[in-house]
Amino acid sequence: MESVLIQNPKSKIQNPSVLIAMNDAGGGHRRLSEALAHAFERLTEGTAQVSIEDVFALDRRSWPYRLGRLYGPTIRHLPGLYGLVYHAANGPRRARRLLRDAQAPLLPAVRRLVRELQPSAVVTTHPLVQALVLDALEAERLRAPVLAQVSELVSVHASWVEPRITAYAVATEEARLAVLRHGAPAARVRVLGLPIGPTFAQAGPSAAETRRALGLDPDRFTLLALGGGEGAGKLQMAVEALVESGLELQLVVVCGRNVGLERRLQALVAPFPMRVFGYVDTVAELMAACDVVLTKGGPQTIAEAFARGRPVLVTQTLPGQERGNEVLVQRANAGFYVPTPARVVAATARLALDEPLRATMSAAARQLARPAAAASVAQWALALAESRRQ
Fold first, then answer.
1. 219 CB-contact burial (10 Å; exposed 0-12 / middle 13-18 / buried 19+)
2. Tell me: the pLDDT tens digits for 367-382?
């Protein structure tokens, strides 16, 4: 895998301006963008002016913004419909035509944004914002390089690949091959891992200490259950099955923005310690407290769990961009695919009772981790900006 070695991390550009362009669908794109922002600030010793912008939210009256707000309800209740839309647009010409027509009303707002920021470099963390940002840069005659940080592990939508993109940072070899199939020039693509926040790779208090702080038994097998920012991925069924399983364990559950799910799970009477949270920014600490992570197949959570060295139980993969993530986890022996409540219980029981297997899977997860990914991507973007100025 090609990588960027950080030998002289300080940027040569004085006070660089960096735009991280995203769409706040789910929780992973936000966490990815924040990880990159932190890396830019560290590499420039705080001199960079880093802006994370939800491009669609620049005009909340626009139908792309309103349609984006349906992402959460759709993946929770109608994932099959989401898959149909995903595949219908999964072709280079189709994707570009749809994006051009849909996003034209947003172009004036994006032009104002780039005119104000005058970015030295742009990083995109969602495919649907790329053409819009590129159009705005061209209209304003700005020469900032645009680096696409592909947020998927295996399956990559055609809309990620755009001829005007300067470079592509991808998480895995599978993702590299996917963007090449969509037409990205090989010389522009590097496998750098998926950027994660610095706290996921940092040593902190022991699992026992973190459990005590959460009011949990410090010595009991602990499972962290998440459903992404939207509380999706059959989370309720999985938690209910574990509550009824009779297993000796304790649960930490994160429901994200799904307030209804949070209320329902808080009303459960569990025969073991269980803590239920809504949307939190302490996922790294919660992972430190657990032995195993149960989650839908979101790439960001999987990458974060790998960095923590936690085996992953994948409950569901969203049709489209999450397909293949469960295969990646199982092939690496870093976890199991558990699409039914019975398989959730069976895999949890196996890991709770088999400590050597848990240790083996933890080691496999760490082998897949790329904790320096954010720094590598940020350095590459700054290097592209420097070369563009010469």
1. exposed
2. 999 999 999 999 999 9
